[in-house]
Amino acid sequence: xxxxxxxxxxxxxxxxxRINAVxxxxxxxxxxxxxxxxxxxxxxxxxxxLIKLAKQMHAEPPARELDVLLAxxxxxxxxxxxxxxxxxxxxxxxxxxxxxxxxxxxxxxKARILDIDDARAREDLAKGxxxxxxxxxxxxxxxxxxxxxxxxxxxxxxxxxxxxKADECQIYTDVDGVYTTDPRIVPQARRLDRITVEEMLEMxxxxxxxxxxxxxxxxxxxxxxxxxxxxxxxxxxTLITYEENEMEAPLISGIAxxxxxxxxxxxxxxxxxxxxxxxxxxxxxxxxxVDMIVQNVAADGNTDxxxxxxxxEYKKALEILKVVAKExxxxxxxxxxxxxxxSVVGVGMRSHAGIAAQMxxxxxxEGINIQMISTSEIKVSVVVEEKYxxxxxxxxxxxxxxDKAA
Amino acid sequence: xxxxxxxxxxxxxxxxxRINAVxxxxxxxxxxxxxxxxxxxxxxxxxxxLIKLAKQMHAEPPARELDVLLAxxxxxxxxxxxxxxxxxxxxxxxxxxxxxxxxxxxxxxKARILDIDDARAREDLAKGxxxxxxxxxxxxxxxxxxxxxxxxxxxxxxxxxxxxKADECQIYTDVDGVYTTDPRIVPQARRLDRITVEEMLEMxxxxxxxxxxxxxxxxxxxxxxxxxxxxxxxxxxTLITYEENEMEAPLISGIAxxxxxxxxxxxxxxxxxxxxxxxxxxxxxxxxxVDMIVQNVAADGNTDxxxxxxxxEYKKALEILKVVAKExxxxxxxxxxxxxxxSVVGVGMRSHAGIAAQMxxxxxxEGINIQMISTSEIKVSVVVEEKYxxxxxxxxxxxxxxDKAA
Lengths: 406, 406
Hints:
The structure is a homodimer of 406-residue chains.
Chain A: E1 3-8, H1 16-31, E2 35-40, H2 46-55, H3 63-70, H4 72-87, E3 92-95, E4 102-104, E5 113-116, H5 119-126, E6 130-134, E7 137-139, E8 145-147, H6 152-164, E9 168-173, E10 194-196, H7 197-205, H8 213-222, E11 226-230, E12 238-241, E13 254-270, H9 275-285, E14 290-295, E15 302-310, H10 314-328, E16 332-345, H11 355-365, E17 370-376, E18 379-385, H12 389-399
Parallel strand pairs in A: 1-2, 1-9, 2-6, 3-6, 9-11, 10-12
Antiparallel strand pairs in A: 4-5, 7-8, 11-12, 13-15, 13-16, 14-15, 16-18, 17-18
Helix pairs in contact in A: 1-4, 6-8, 7-8, 9-10, 11-12
């Protein structure tokens, strides 16, 4: 008998049949004696349909009103699931973000959860009811409806689990867990039984898009036991852990990668204090997110300043930099949007030297040239030519022994 | 400069184009300097779509959850209209029933409004914003979402107008006002410039389905000036009034009718006290609504007891009565579901004798036999064979001088 929060994403509730399948699973857990809280996303495609409607009214729909509109998506699925549960003889109550008072700030479209009033949920659980909560949405201090941004339902689930001190927060998705890398690239990729929250953060931000980053951060902060599972097949999924028993940790947990990268280089920048700030300041002002940043040691008073941006913002970044470069009297601005990033991730590397060397060697053996390098405590990332992505990921997956069963 | 509440029904907001047309009209009123509150229904067809979804989850969807589901319909239209207004440079704010705290009882699916918190709306109006309110929905004292039942958006509009002491509550529909009778039957039928609330109640309940009865009662209670207009063409519509200047009132305002009637007769009932109560009690227990009731003077200790029910409940009523008749030792139970009701309505008849006689004569001239008669202060209704409906309505429309322009 435990208190379980389950979250189902858009594909898991994408049709009446699938909602019935979710009801079957929730009813089964309930029958085993668990207290159940279920957090739902909108049906897959619904958010896009609503945004399309909004665009017919206003080219840039006011954020407050867009949130009112989008919030109908989960309100629909929570009502339908509650009906399906009642149809199975399982008492259930649905709640919008407003009704369980998921208090957020008032940044419409990407609000942050500040507080949850768990009284209502506790009362229902005590009466044996399943509590069905709308993900993705909340309410600001003035009662305005807010949304947390895409993937925000994960955050709702984690926040509910934290508020209720749930025994486990289970995130049901269309994959059956977190893998050592993308199985579409490396068929031998394995599901990880467990992964630390830090590794998960590195994996997620690097492209293993299983969970919304913010929800993982949230889970880490409140030490919510988080498990990723498949909606469509039974299995243990992957448990995200907080203990860091590095003795037992595998050296490397996975190989992450990102195709959405572009590289920009400001060459021949005068090497004086404040230059980096000036360059990145302009980029930041334009809301362009910067990922890797590399600055080489200066030679004859000049240095090269390189960083990566999202590929969609490549042109914008180049234009800004051309202006900045002129002001700075930099020699030139060049770039490349045919690059990718590959990373090896693992808490185990903290206590083991030589991971980076091993990585570079594996890539060199395949004739892959490394353009940029960036390291953190539990990750080594490299930028390589786009055409080497698959080859590089496979080489590293094999080199770090991930092909074999653990 | 006035405070105007406008309500638009499902067909008026049935598509993005139509919502844009509503925005145009609201913006025009706003530009004339009026304070505007707009109440919306769900897009036409949306409620049926949602009910169909619900039925896939549960043959008899739990009422609480059905209300959560249905409330998404207006939440969608209010957000879209607010966007369309903002797109025209008109500041607007949308509010769900929850957000303006339309407090209702907790009879899900047909809740009654108890109170409205108008502070939020007043604040927005003071800031020059158009306030866009979801019709049809409210919230009970525990924060559960409720709905007022089909047509409840009219009631929301009237309630908002009453709470805000609006100068006028305008109900936009797909007809351009209240007519002397159905123009599909009598092409000469005229739009009435004004009609009293009592006449409107009689007209509405008798089949001139322009406004929800409850909203008219509500308007009468709070003396809210109510006007029915067309969404699709400009015009003055019909104003529903409360003053009863009978000197000026036309004798008869309109000819109403209902096709949905059926007649049941319990013959040879012992004429003793309590019989009517016993017969109607069983009918009421089965939730069958009774309309006209006629009991003839008794002859040799027996009487006939006749009443009309909705045609859809005819069989149910007959079955119940067969049991009751046996207990009462009544002679027989017969019925007829091929009948209709035709009524002449007008506050003017209060001060004029002979309306009923004039009505019966007009019908007799056409050879129409009258099966039942029922009168109230401002209405005379008759039940006739179904095949006489059109003939009877036309004869009365002409006999009471409604064909000519007023």
